[in-house]
Write a structure and sequence with these properties.
Structural class of chain A: mainly beta
Shape of chain A: globular
Strand content of chain A: over 45%
Distance between the termini of chain B: 40 Å
Number of strands of chain A: 11
Distance between the termini of chain A: 37 Å
Order of helices and strands of chain A: EEEEEEEEEEE
Helix content of chain A: under 10%
Structural class of chain B: mainly beta
Strand content of chain B: over 45%
Largest sheet of chain A: 7 strands, mixed
Number of helices of chain A: 0
Number of strands of chain B: 11
Order of helices and strands of chain B: EEEEEEEEEEE
Shape of chain B: globular
Radius of gyration of chain A: 13 Å
Oligomer: heterodimer
Chain lengths: 117, 112
Amino acid sequence: GAVVSQHPSWVICKSGTSVKIECRSLDFQATTMFWYRQFPKKSLMLMATSNEGSKATYEQGVEKDKFLINHASLTLSTLTVTSAHPEDSSFYICSARWGRGWQETQYFGPGTRLLVL
Amino acid sequence: QKEVEQNSGPLSVPEGAIASLNCTYSDRGSQSFFWYRQYSGKSPELIMFIYSNGDKEDGRFTAQLNKASQYVSLLIRDSQPSDSATYLCAVTASGGSYIPTFGRGTSLIVHP
């Protein structure tokens, strides 16, 4: 299957700092990537859809200025959590879409665990 | 609102038994159906996808799709303790965006 990587896998930061998370499709090009967050024992929550060369589409309730998404190339999307606060601590997971049309399949990265102190 | 429903469980089965996981969806126009496995603390991993009515087998896993009844199931034969995880059902509806909707997942526990 398709391989998606994320970096870093773990990050601890102080409140008020910004954190950048990278998501890369390693062996395929992904025009669309997705960003999710997941709290412990909770379901996946889609934050935004990242499209190469255009602005991301955010889900309702997700602050665009808080969670900056840049999809600069067909293999890289980044999520920047700006001015992070303890309530932003979560498991952030990206996925990349592989295939065409309704037969497209999502492959997930390993996730980034963010802890804001 | 497109919905994907799963029983949260936990579903507990003995080692060697068949585990049956079910998922129902609300959008009759849905076209693609996926099962993901998520171990605690890890990201989801794709197990199977199915597009057509009927059964699709891959090793110990069988996905079953019934579009008329709007459900998709996953059978795990000869369940092993290593199968203990949360299983997520995802459905991609019609409409062009092809963004899948995930269910909340079913927790499976396979006990020795």
